[in-house]
Amino acid sequence: MNNDHNGNPTRLGLGHLPSELIVEIFKEVAWKDVLSIRKTCRRFCELSKTLSIWKNQFLEHDGYTPQEQARNRLITPTLSPRLERLMESYTSPELEHLFLRWQGAEIGWSRDDKFPVRQRSVTLRIPQSRPFLLIEGGRWVLFATTAGSVEYVDLDAQSEDMVERLLVPKQTTSGASTKMAVDIDDKEPVLTFNLALSISTRNEELLQIWKVVLEVDEKGRGVGLSARHVASYSQIPNRPLEGIAIGGPYFVYYFWLENHDPETHFVVVNWQEALASQGHENGLISNYSMRIISNHLVEKINAVYFLEGNKLFISTSNRQLIYNIESIPISLTFQIPPGSIPPLLEVLEKCSVISNPFIFPYSVVRFSLLSEELIKGMNINFNSPVPSAQIYTLKSAPITLLRGLVPVLGYKRGVFMRRHGGVAILSYPWPGHEDFENFRASVILKDFSRENWAGRRALRGGCVCIESLWYPVRKARLRAEAEPQH
């Protein structure tokens, strides 16, 4: 407290503090208050644009340990969007723009105004149904063709530049069935991921690994993607695949041996070890060791994911399974094991749709799943040698959303296709939510422009994307809601 010219005590205001101290105060203020404070005076406006303030806004929303925060790209998937580069490489305006766009999308999805938050439209060159993947972060979407090539679209580009660009060249003549899976490498300073391709023709089944890296300009900004072929693997046995997944040094493919045999067989391969031992980089690897799971899994396979610690997660219509990969015997040829491979964890829970895994600190993994007419949460704890699972009922799904429709689930929202166009968004809480006991499930309707909308009847052509969720529509159009994954 100071005295005025008459000797009377006066109080010091915020503006009397040093700039460094004001910045430290702004770092502890909610983002809405930061925007309000900057309107009060020119000095506060300039200080509110300090880089450390917006870095802190991101880190306040991740919940990771300090060691993980140090990399500044491992952002909790339920909250902040994934960054394409180390946080230190962003300018303050870039970080503020990303953060406010994400917050605007979050507000928009909670507002029942029937309008999508941010819609993009792309005309596809090839008017046919094509496999697609949206890379986590919501900017890049990959498309596979019947010739085994892969193209991509930048959803952040200007409308005139939002066209398909070649990533992986043609691998065969037209008529192939191509499947894709990706595994993001968080150890790299820019967006980097391994792309696994399964290319199926009448004569052969081929597996490929490509390394995809973000291309940057002289200012370090991402401008495109480039791919390098790492290796090709002949599939053993030579059967059409039901699916493929990749994670760390492993990939897994699964299939039926015979069309009339509903049992699914899984082959897990350490592709990095096979590549190192045979030294066939960019060549074909036909002999490699494998681990086989054939546990009489006759149920529908919902999804397969790799988890940390060499764990394989398999979701079926009747149970959820976790295997310790290293405990599965190694085989040099494909042979169905004489006995069952015991899972590390088996959860007898019916499931028709399951989310991606959501990784949390302290060895916790969460999934959202649809079990009959209930949205449930599965919390898996890996803190002990034998993991444990808890199932929570999050909310019931209105039956009107489930009739003939396949939802896509995020951590706290599910998206349901509407027959006449647009989507319905169902929000649900997890235990620990401040109003979990009294939370009322809300259904919000969002409409799209319908000039090319054809509902669900002819599943050909382009796609609709809600957050990071995609649906086929009839015309060769791509409609994208560019919002971070939830």
From TrEMBL:
Among Pfam families, the record links this protein to: F-box-like
The lineage's top-level taxon is Eukaryota
Record protein name field:
F-box domain-containing protein
Q: Which InterPro entries match?
A: F-box-like_dom_sf, F-box_dom
- Which positions fall inside the F-box domain? 11-57
